[in-house]
């Protein structure tokens, strides 16, 4: 991953392949003008104060995500200047809005880092007004520079970080304006590295082909990471699942030669008095089972374990950060395949909780594995449970491809989760759990069916999951079906493919709980 350093060096004398600066659309009296953002004063001075005019001549407007390259001025040791748009500058008249938004900095740094693939070093002279900005820029760089090419013969990952052909990720980024001896600045970089390394690990897992990432392989990766970071791990294989009565996980995984697993990751802090449980859907490949998906809907179904990847990454990140909170992660891992042993529409499964579920559609499988894991998590009576899942296409229809839905059995907790997501730059939206939709899941032969009304399908799925949360336990459900896998082109710090959606939200929830700021 890209190495991050803090530097008080002046941009002109720094040896680098590029100097990255920010530009923005003017606000207030400068409305309509292109302005050079703070941090780039030395660069602007070298252009005799005409940098904005030069960039405007080249077509720059300061729009978010826009990138413009130009030759560096005489005397600079870096050959080029890279100007990246930050959107509209903050209104200087507002005392509460003098700094650039953290997400704007994150996106700008990500755009620049991706554009500088193949470079050995770049200096980022973006606006830094404190550790928050240092952390945001660092995150943007580390996430924007991500690439997944391990399966390509000439890829950098396949050749020890050096691409035979093509371009390796940016090797080093110096954050100008960052203070190397300032504890808060150093802490912001350390946090960015820990969170982003784990988020990028989640991206790797999501991007892995399903013939390599079976439930057993995923469990093995989790065991290795747990050992490295002092996390206790327990893996239930198919035999242990049968003995324990995990009918939901077994039912979904019964059609595949790759047998299911339930992985429990436990991070404990000796001073913690709060306990969070994270539960992740880990369908390593989803064919739909007997209710087979139609052509055109199978190609990206390796991403159906994105929830488990997010939970795994968040628990490891919490351990690396040493957060004063106990965090347990539950990875419900199975492969949903059609075969003679696969669960059929009309079958009834006895879940780990003892409830029975009539399976009306085998492609509504995520809620079945989550139900068992939610009940298992409930037995430890945590202060709160948050599950994460690429659960329903209905949520994508409702919120699009970049926003995840948040449902909960407690309005205040739902608001807290939503606010945490927005704070870290993960678009989310609170969704209801209408009681009248529960009636549609009534079954003549079982306690509940795994399908209900078609309209509001994402909410129906949330109501189903609520049935398997222990009484009196605060719970939230994140349906990340939209943002978990980016099928379009990269944007900001988001790559094509696996995104690692919800990792930062879960880590932030753990931080808030550790600080006593989450209920």
UniProtKB/TrEMBL annotation:
One Pfam family from the record: Peptidase_M17_N
Binding site for Mn(2+) 1: 286, 363, 365
Binding site for Mn(2+) 2: 281, 286, 304, 365
Alphabetical keyword list: Aminopeptidase, Cytoplasm, Hydrolase, Manganese, Metal-binding, Protease
GO MF assignments: aminopeptidase activity
Compartment(s): Cytoplasm
The organism's place on the tree of life at top rank: Bacteria
Annotated Cytosol aminopeptidase domain residues: 361-368
Primary location recorded for the protein, binned into one broad class: cytoplasm
Enzyme Commission (EC) number: 3.4.11.1, 3.4.11.10
Cofactor(s) it depends on: Mn(2+)
Reactions it catalyzes: Release of an N-terminal amino acid, preferentially leucine, but not glutamic or aspartic acids; Release of an N-terminal amino acid, Xaa-|-Yaa-, in which Xaa is preferably Leu, but may be other amino acids including Pro although not Arg or Lys, and Yaa may be Pro. Amino acid amides and methyl esters are also readily hydrolyzed, but rates on arylamides are exceedingly low
Location of the active site: 293, 367
Keyword DNA-binding set for record: no
Function: Presumably involved in the processing and regular turnover of intracellular proteins. Catalyzes the removal of unsubstituted N-terminal amino acids from various peptides.
Similarity annotation: Belongs to the peptidase M17 family.
Protein name listed in UniProt: Probable cytosol aminopeptidase
